[in-house]
């Protein structure tokens, strides 16, 4: 009451409306008025706080214009029918088969690896967040393909630890093929946080679930040739330094290798990193040069071919996807079991890193010449200086370690591989299908 009175007293009588009167009626009205004002004031503060909380809260629905968070939307999963589909997809159907959780299953390499595993009778369950880094309709088409092969894809994010843990509760996966990632070298300058989100936080979320699973699975995952960064000694060997990345993408893949080492060391998880060298082929990624060069050559659009200083060649050790798939399956088949149980290490576990390349780098201008011949269209070329956007001048894999330990032997040259890609591209995008996004 005292507070109330003093509040009223502080209002100068000159403002008339609240001038103190002796009448008890007027006095009561004033008290009522003041309470109403206070109520309005505090309600406003309360609503403002609620608004600020929801607007800034990380658990609110992601804003579509913030692509680093586009994969945090909620998905429908769970229930007896869902669990049945998960179990059935992961069921091993051959002697000595393995049961594999493939993350990024609707991605380029993920689709090929999942199909190959399923074909030989392994149990395969896919996990993919279907984000829109590139045309999601291509991911949906791969999804349909996998569906026909009997691979079920759970729609969700590797950062959703509750979902990932649930998958390990429903299925005792023997292996994880971890391919979910934010790929692409140049896009890291546009959307750096998406790389941290998928390649670092997502990896940790997945490894946390793996370490606590019983039994712990063996994990094979995709690192990248980009970890060799600015190295000039060729061919790149697994023994070479990897401490001078040229892009944030490369840095997150390098960080992933160190994180993997930690989980191997502390929890006894069996971990194998595969450093992929510029993988290409049917069902590929529209953000990669061979893919959008094909689209632009067909449209008559000028393509930019990067060139290093002093007319230096920019080259890549382009590797055909079927060769990569063989390398992935060999890595899964030779992976030793993890040694931990109940989240505790019981003994030393396997830790491996392999280059999976083609061992014959091709200049980007030669790649364009091959495409011109296959498409029977001359490209409108513009040679420009290699932009400072994370691209390195060349890559070249030394694959002797993978050859020795995995029996890895790439057998598709760029001409043959691109021919298969172009045949797929023309088939996929003709007949009423949309142009590649
Ligand atoms: O080897 C790898 O680990 C990496 O391979 C590719 O990265 P990148 O080799 O840069 O592949 P593209 O983006 O398809 O570029 C191929 C070549 O074309 C060149 N390029 C690209 C774009 C362009 O407009 N013009 C052009 O000449 C690039 O400099 C590069 O030499 C993938 O995009 C990465 O996700 C992967 O990790």
UniProtKB/TrEMBL annotation:
TM helices/strands, residue ranges: 39-55
UniProt xrefs under SUPFAM superfamilies: NAD(P)-binding Rossmann-fold domains (SSF51735)
This protein's UniProt keywords: Isomerase, Membrane, NAD, Transmembrane, Transmembrane helix
Superkingdom in the source lineage: Eukaryota
InterPro entries: Epimerase_deHydtase (IPR001509), NAD(P)-bd_dom_sf (IPR036291)
NAD-dependent epimerase/dehydratase domain residues: 100-337
Membership in a protein family: Belongs to the NAD(P)-dependent epimerase/dehydratase family.
Protein name (record): NAD-dependent epimerase/dehydratase domain-containing protein
Organism phylogeny: Eukaryota, Viridiplantae, Streptophyta, Embryophyta, Tracheophyta
């Amino acid at each position: 009451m005292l507070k109330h009175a003093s509040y009223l007293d502080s209002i100068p009588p000159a403002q008339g409306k609240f001038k103190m009167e002796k009448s008890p009626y007027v006095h009561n009205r004033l008290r009522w008025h003041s309470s109403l004002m206070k109520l309005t004031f505090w309600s406003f503060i309360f609503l403002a706080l609620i608004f600020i909380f929801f607007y800034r809260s990380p658990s609110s629905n992601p804003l579509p214009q913030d692509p680093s968070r586009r994969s945090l939307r909620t998905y429908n999963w769970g229930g007896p029918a869902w669990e049945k589909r998960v179990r059935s997809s992961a069921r091993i159907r051959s002697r000595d088969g393995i049961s594999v959780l493939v993350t990024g299953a609707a991605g380029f390499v993920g689709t090929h690896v999942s199909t190959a595993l399923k074909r030989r009778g392994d149990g395969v369950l896919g996990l993919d967040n279907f984000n829109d880094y590139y045309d999601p309709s291509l991911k949906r088409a791969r999804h349909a393909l996998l569906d026909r092969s009997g691979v079920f894809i759970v729609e969700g994010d590797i950062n959703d630890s509750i979902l990932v843990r649930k998958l390990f509760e429903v299925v005792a996966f023997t292996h994880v093929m971890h391919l979910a990632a934010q790929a692409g070298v140049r896009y890291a300058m546009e959307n750096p946080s998406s790389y941290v989100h998928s390649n670092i936080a997502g990896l940790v979320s997945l490894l946390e679930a793996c370490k606590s699973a019983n039994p712990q699975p063996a994990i094979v995952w995709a690192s990248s040739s980009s970890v060799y960064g600015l190295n000039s000694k060729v061919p790149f060997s697994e023994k070479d330094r990897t401490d001078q990345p040229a892009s944030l993408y490369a840095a997150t893949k390098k960080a992933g290798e160190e994180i993997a080492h930690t989980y191997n060391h502390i929890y006894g998880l069996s971990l194998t990193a595969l450093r992929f060298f510029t993988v290409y082929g049917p069902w590929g990624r529209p953000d990669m040069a061979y893919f959008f060069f094909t689209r632009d050559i067909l449209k008559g659009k000028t393509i930019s071919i990067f060139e290093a200083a002093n007319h230096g060649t920019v080259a890549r050790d382009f590797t055909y996807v079927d060769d990569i798939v063989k390398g992935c399956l060999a890595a899964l088949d030779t992976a030793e079991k993890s040694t931990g149980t109940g989240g505790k290490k019981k003994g030393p576990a396997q830790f491996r890193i392999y280059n999976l390349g083609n061992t014959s780098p091709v200049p980007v201008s030669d790649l364009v010449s091959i495409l011109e011949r296959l498409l029977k269209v001359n490209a409108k070329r513009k040679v420009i200086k290699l932009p400072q956007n994370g691209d390195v001048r060349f890559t070249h894999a030394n694959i002797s370690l993978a050859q020795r330990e995995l029996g890895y032997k790439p057998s598709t040259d760029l001409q043959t591989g691109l021919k298969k890609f172009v045949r797929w591209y023309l088939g996929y995008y003709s007949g009423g299908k949309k142009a590649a996004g």
